Amino acid sequence: MATLQPQHHHLLLRHRPPPPRLRLRLPTRPPRPHRLLPPARAVSAAAAASTAALEDFRRWLSSQGAVEGKAFPAAVPEGLGLVAARDLPRGEVVAEVPKKLWMDADAVAASDIGRACGGGGGLRPWVAVALLLLREVARGADSPWAPYLAILPRQTDSTIFWSEEELLEIQGTQLLSTTVGVKEYVQSEFESVEAEIINANKDLFPGTITSDDFLWAFGILRSRVFPELRGDKLALIPFADLVNHSPTITSEGSSWEIKGKGLFGREAMFSLRTSVDVKSGEQIYIQYDLDKSNAELALDYGFIESNSSRDSYTVTLEISESDPFYGDKLDIAELNGLGETAYFDIVLDEPLPSQMLTYLRLLCIGGTDAFILEALFRNSVWGHLELPLSPDNEESICQVMRDACKSALDAYQTTIQEDEEISQRENLPPRLKIAIGVRAGEKKVLQQIDDIFKQREEELDGLEYYQERRLKDLGLVGDNGEIIFWET
Ligand SMILES: C[S@@+](CC[C@H](N)C(=O)[O-])C[C@H]1O[C@@H](n2cnc3c(N)ncnc32)[C@H](O)[C@@H]1O
User: Fold this and answer.
1) Most-buried pick from 21, 100, 180, 391 (CB within 10 A)?
2) Protein residue with its CA nearest to atom 11 in ligand 1
3) Which residues does S-adenosyl-L-methionine bind (predicted)?
4) Is 224 helix (H, G, I), strand (E, B) or coil?
5) ipTM above 0.95, yes or no
6) What is the pLDDT of residues 53-80, one digit of tens each?
């Protein structure tokens, strides 16, 4: 009937992909052998791109017409970032990057990869750009993007790069199942691409490309592509992609635009603006995405925020195929824009999503309430279910949700209180901080859901149900529940 599933692959994969500061590798973790990738930095300030590589990159930017006068790339606590070269007012353009520097579908089409696979159009856009990235890395100094590739991080703190030991810290979380799901998806894409493209074009990929290399490319795209540049528009924009995220920037508007395409033949230009005033020498930040939960931030970028509105839990509800009223329930759900399975993202300190109780009531209909599923009510049933149907039905939804919360909470290895104690310790590795933040956040939301339904259980006797509302509508019961006789 109703299940709280600790996973949400569906949501994740449907979602856009895009990483941290002082991303220090955990001291316990020996670096994996990596055959293809260059000795670029492993996302940590300590391993930030060498001064020489950064200088090279800056020279490359100027020689290629990227406007670098107002902001320059520099080592910052988040790895690399953009620093203001002078005082910049809000709205000022801080970086302009001509299209010829982008790694996008057009660059794929114009490359060896494009030639080898019919323009690259048959590939998923992210797979095509990932292959271009790997091919250009394989070309070493011959690649036109070599100075850019040399400053890319080897890893971020995204959970896709965590060791098994590190992943143990998020046991029981939705983030773990999502991470595993994403890695499986990337692995399966790798296997097809390896068979169909890499092995068939050994001249383009003379060295070995491993699934770790492919995962690296996926992680780079996921952490660096501007969220709106999805699908066919997916593009790595060197220089602009050095901008880091700040939780203090809360403006919704986009901090970038694409200018100039087709205007008097002028080449398209990616233009990044600062959304706040920045003083000379300070770092320029943007808001990556106000809608992402901490689990999504951890998966995409490898950092989280302390803000409670980022703590969320996705409840998955399902109409069971073994339900005797399966067909009717499914029909009603579909008529109202939902399906056999429905996902509800619950955010800490926020009310339950509006349709969740309605859907839950539908799932829990049985016994004498089943009359409401009859065809006669098909157009009005959803409206009826927006309010309590019967004491039995309302009690069932509370039980279902409380049982599900209990079993989800039992799957975590620590309690919220234990997490809070651990998080007070000094010098916690960044990945452990992420793990604690996400698992504590999920548990708080589950606790909140349980509290909501516990309170509801206590109020069952005082609620007004369908039959009572119906009698009132017919004028047979007064507002205080008294029976109205014809003779009075
Ligand atoms: C678009 S890139 C920005 C450039 C990146 N700092 C670098 O060194 O290449 C996104 C990555 O930067 C890091 N990052 C950005 N904002 C951060 C923040 N507020 N805290 C920690 N890391 C951040 C994360 O590693 C993230 O995956």
Assistant:
1) 21
2) 19
3) 78-80, 224, 244-245
4) helix
5) yes
6) 999 999 999 999 887 689 999 999 999 9
